[in-house]
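Retry 2 of 3 after timeout on previous attempt. Resubmitting structure tokens to design endpoint.
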């Protein structure tokens, strides 16, 4: 009889013994700029493939768009269950370098922190799953199933050429998936809200500005009225389906008791959030504008669909008597989740507790990620990775070294539980 606990403890001990190698790997990933846009993943993909090859691991390259490379490597056999570990190589642009306290591509380790763009989102997590994958190979751990490492180049701009591209072409399949996206220490994300981005264009009639408001028809003022209608989406009372009410409540608990600074944000789990992101209209101050475009980001809770939101918007905007068009773009998804008792969720959550000796549980995220694509293909998935959440996509991004090590321990242990347990 296989002693699963003994195998897991051996792997955890090995991560601890080799943690300097792990941190060096994560640091090296940060040192390679892989900003998206532009999205060129050539250099970082070559680095990762070379790292894996030194342990006898073959990597298959798939170019989904110009200089965007998806990497796939697998260990284990074809019999038994199949687990996917997934991460993205791209990071958001560093922005104004003068606003950083350090070089965003230094990968420096200082006072227990790993510094740089992508440290939290998600090169520390990416390094962790690469390290865990290679460690299982180095130690020649027998797996009664298959583990696939899927590394994608395009998540930060919507992910069209990453996970959804691989899934659509049938290049990755599995019984469960873990994305090493940033999360809190004890709380992986097992569900997320839906996304509905749209552009509203309001049409007016041009005229001389000196005759406004008696002449022409001002598209900007009509757009202002339309914006007020759009913002009422927040006030809608959504009936949350019974099957996810438990997840909502435990997520509120997390926001009250763990991420206490987020307590005030609890209502976003049950409401439609509305961000008026951009507005563009008019040509000159003395010309009555004939067009105004507004881009809006709405996140949808369980219990409401994009079609229902569109119908609500059209009804309310029609009442204004304005001329307009609504054009969806960018992120589009429905609220989605993986049940907490699914084997892949249990494998990660149970091993967070095994490693930390503390209670762990899955929660909702209020944004979106590649997880939605796996669920579209009926692959149960969750997200767990090292992060200092306040710095994600901001200046001075960083992550604690101890968090990187902890997550890598969870990754190696969870593979054993998931593949060995029937």
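Retry 2 succeeded. Sequence:
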């Amino acid at each position: 009889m296989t002693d699963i606990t003994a195998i897991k403890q051996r792997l955890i001990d090995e991560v601890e013994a080799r943690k300097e190698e792990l941190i060096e790997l994560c640091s090296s990933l940060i040192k390679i700029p892989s900003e998206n846009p532009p999205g060129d993943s050539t250099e970082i993909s070559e680095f990762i493939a070379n790292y894996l090859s030194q342990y006898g691991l073959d990597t298959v390259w798939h170019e989904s768009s110009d200089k965007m490379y998806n990497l796939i490597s697998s260990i284990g056999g074809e019999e038994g269950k199949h687990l996917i570990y997934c991460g993205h190589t791209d990071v958001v642009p560093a922005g104004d370098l003068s606003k950083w306290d350090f070089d965003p591509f230094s990968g420096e380790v200082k006072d227990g922190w790993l510094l740089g763009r992508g440290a939290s989102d998600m090169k520390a997590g990416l390094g962790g799953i690469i390290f865990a994958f290679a460690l299982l190979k180095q130690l020649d751990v027998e797996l009664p199933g298959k583990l696939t490492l899927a590394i994608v180049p395009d998540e930060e701009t919507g992910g069209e050429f990453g996970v959804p591209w691989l899934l659509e072409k049938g290049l990755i399949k599995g019984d469960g998936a873990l994305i090493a996206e940033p999360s809190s220490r004890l709380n992986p994300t097992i569900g997320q809200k839906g996304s509905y981005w749209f552009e509203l264009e309001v049409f007016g009639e041009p005229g001389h500005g000196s005759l406004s408001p008696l002449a022409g028809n001002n598209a900007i003022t009509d757009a202002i009225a339309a914006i007020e209608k759009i913002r009422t989406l927040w006030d809608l009372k959504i009936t949350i389906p019974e099957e996810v009410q438990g997840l909502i409540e435990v997520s509120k608990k997390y926001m009250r008791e763990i991420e206490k600074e987020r307590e005030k944000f609890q209502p976003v789990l049950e409401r439609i959030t509305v961000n008026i992101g951009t507005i563009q209209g008019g040509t000159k101050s003395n010309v009555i504008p004939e067009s105004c475009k507004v881009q809006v980001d709405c996140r949808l809770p369980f219990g409401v669909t994009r079609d229902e939101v569109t119908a609500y918007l059209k009804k309310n905007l029609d009442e204004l008597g304005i001329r307009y068009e609504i054009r969806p773009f960018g992120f589009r998804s429905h609220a989605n989740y993986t049940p907490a008792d699914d084997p892949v969720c249990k494998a990660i959550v149970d091993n967070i507790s095994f490693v930390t000796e503390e209670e762990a549980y899955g929660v909702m995220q209020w944004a979106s990620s590649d997880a939605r694509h796996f669920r579209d293909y009926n692959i149960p998935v969750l997200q767990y990775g090292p992060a200092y959440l306040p710095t994600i996509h901001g200046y001075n991004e960083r992550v604690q070294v101890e968090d990187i090590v902890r997550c890598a321990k969870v990754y190696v242990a969870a593979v054993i539980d998931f593949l060995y347990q029937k």
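Attempt log closed. The domain at 4-192+335-420 is CATH 3.40.630.10 (Aminopeptidase).
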